[in-house]
Amino acid sequence: MPTTTLFVKMILDRWYASIVNCDVLLHSLTDETLQKEIAPGKNRGIYLLGHLIAVHDDLLILLDMGEKLYPELNEPFIKSPDKTVAQLPAASELRSFWTKQSEAIKQKFENMKPEEWFEKHTAVTTEDFEKEPHRNKLNIVVTRTSHLQYHLGQLQLLK
Amino acid sequence: MPTTTLFVKMILDRWYASIVNCDVLLHSLTDETLQKEIAPGKNRGIYLLGHLIAVHDDLLILLDMGEKLYPELNEPFIKSPDKTVAQLPAASELRSFWTKQSEAIKQKFENMKPEEWFEKHTAVTTEDFEKEPHRNKLNIVVTRTSHLQYHLGQLQLLK
């Protein structure tokens, strides 16, 4: 296996495995449980789920993979902290967004050629990218996998 | 920059940044706070800190980088769940272990040539590695960074 293909596989495997971890966890939690705080005074499960979807929508933009699927989630789940927005989408709706989004991302990832992952992402200038070639599309997946794992550790506390 | 060097940098950067995240968080928490549960009935901060050190000691073994620094932590922080072991090390002691271990790991990582990261780790057979070359040393760092982020999300709740 050429090294580039191997390296991309290592990173995408970790992303997909983290998505599956989250799927399994979500299936084990009721909508009622998702309304609970992960710890007293902290974010609710439903907020973290919406936050993950909103951040993964941003990933589509950073990877130049088209429009956000749920741009309306940016305001309540990224710009606003939990418990400051009067009306959030229902847990059932967010679950459906999560599943559709993960599938859409998977399809887009599968259409990428290994070399394309080493192109610059949309938030870095051509000039900076010449000096810092690690600021490529694959690195966005690396950092967003970290972000997902961070919040997975928190969502797990709802069990 | 040769591509292999770039791959390795992307992964190690994420590891080091996660270690720094943990350092900063630990500095912001008192020893008293570390004795608290991250959520009612869940693991205590001190348990998670000991657990991370024990898991990172295992990483040294998997990467064939010499002996564990604190083998005595395996029993209380990996084999045993929290609150089942009568006497755990003091928080101050674990903090010192954490710092020394992170520094030791950094030195060992810096001594690796980029290609060496793509050699097999110690828990995979030569036969399996031929079929699954992604089971290399660098991939151990990928998965352990995920693990660290997962527990960082939990430790953060002590703030």
From TrEMBL, chains A, B:
The UniProt entry, under InterPro entries, shows: DinB-like, DinB/YfiT-like
Q: Which domain of life is it from?
A: Bacteria
Q: Which residues form the DinB-like domain?
A: 24-155
Q: Known Gene3D superfamilies for this protein?
A: dinb family like domain
Q: What is this protein called?
A: DinB family protein
> From which organism does this entry originate?
Flavobacterium pectinovorum
